Amino acid sequence: MAQRATLNSVAEAAAVSRQTVSNVINSPEVVSPETRERVLEAIERLGYRPHTAARQLRTTRSQIIGLRIAPVGNGVSGVVLDQFLHSLTATAEEYDHRIMLFTAADDESETRAYADLIASVGVDAFVLTHTHHDDLRTRWLRERELPFVTFGRPWGAEQDHPWVDVDGARGTRLATDHLVRQGHRRIAFVGWPEGSETGDDRRAGWSAGLAEAGIPERREAAVFDGVEGGRSAAARLLDEPLAPTAFVCASDSLALGVVGELRDRGLRLGADASVIGFDDTPTAAVLGLSSVAQPIAEVAAECVRQLRVMLRGEPGPASALLPPRLVLRRT
After folding, report:
1. Fold exhibited by the domain 64-165+295-321
2. What pTM, to 2 d.p., does this model score?
3. Which of 26, 111, 216, 264 is most buried (CB neighbours < 10 A)?
């Protein structure tokens, strides 16, 4: 029977110290790329696997990160959180962390779940989504000095914690600027009711793009997310005396509703009217819908990086606002 590879045998094969191998596994950023590659090659060749149980005893950490699974919405854009979960899990596993999923009906029950998970399985840290003003969850975790990071900004001056987000205003600004360059002057925004922090952020980019282009009109409709919401919003806007010739939407779900209404009225997409969604879901790709793509893999990687910094007791990590990109298709 082949002997199990050890930290020492990997160090010998890579001609480095035992501490260097440990750094590659636990803190790869402190090792030079060349040395890191050599150690990783030795790990792969020898089939070395870190002894998780021993590490947990030594560090008194469970290597578990908690994440609440939010209820399924009525739009197609919920796939973004599915992509985030997959990327977060894959990135966490690279550092021998595991994601523990749980459900909660609201913020208050989510904080109760935090307490239960910490007491029962010793969860090391949490990742939060769907941040909002006066967020009870972040306040609860901060008061107890527990490590966490949010996918989403704090949305309030009174809140200060590590976060990762995508610049929604920049995304809709990219969409608006493109439509202006295509010659559109009647560019409508289809978004969510005022008070949705993410929606307000995306609306701001559209508004700034119109202002920069010297377009005073602000044609917009606020509806709840979903294809039917987008369809009803488009119907209202198209019934106006000077109907929009282009639509910037806060989600792909809304954009698909707009596309449906345009087709029902016999309007040619990309010719009579243009539509740009947000999230670049697989549905958008299949149907040829132009959309703003979020860098979800990068968001997940940054969330894990920030948590690892906190768990190592290093100075607080800088929050990150990542840029989206515009993906142009037939619409």
Report:
1. Rossmann fold (3.40.50)
2. 0.81
3. 111
Alpha helices in 221-319 (DSSP H): 227-238, 252-264, 282-287, 296-311
CATH number, span 168-293 = 3.40.50.2300
Contact 142, 161 (CB under 8 A): yes
Task: Name every residue whose Cβ is closer than 8 Å to that of residue 72 and which is 6 or more positions away in sequence.
Answer: 78
Domain ranges of the chain: 1-21+30-39, 64-165+295-321, 168-293
Q: Are 162 and 183 in contact (CB under 8 A)?
A: no
Q: Which residues pair with 99 in a beta bridge?
A: 65
pLDDT tens-digit map of 284-296: 999 999 999 999 9
d(CA 183, CA 274): 11
Reduce the secondary structure of 189-236 to three states and give it as a string.
EEECCCCCHHHHHHHHHHHHHHHHCCCCCCCEEECCCCHHHHHHHHHH
* pLDDT score for 263: 96
